[in-house]
Amino acid sequence: MSYAIIQTGGKQYRVAEGDILDVEKLDASLGQVTTFSDVLMLADESSVTFGAPFIENASVQAEVLDQWKGEKVIAFKFRRRKGYHRTVGHRRRLTKLKITAISKK
Fold this sequence. Notes:
Elements (H helix, E strand, L loop, with lengths): L2 E6 L2 E5 L4 E5 L8 E4 L2 E5 L4 E3 L7 E22 L4 E21 L1
Antiparallel strand pairs: 1-2, 1-5, 3-8, 4-7, 5-6, 7-8
């Protein structure tokens, strides 16, 4: 089973062909195929290749399945005995991807 480690949105993900994952929002429309060239590591049945920091001529292709907003995250701050409290929240914008191909030229 071959897999790769890619970097997108400031995070790293371990992906294999057929995987479905949620990443930070990408500027891509539904059904569009996007290519990630920031490949940190490639592994197949016989070898493992590490980049320094990225592997040249390696890419991962993924199809955009959905653009959506994640669950609400609440940040509650307070100082005891001071009467201070503050509630802040946000919802992350996410892109759902399906990995279609991992290639090294």
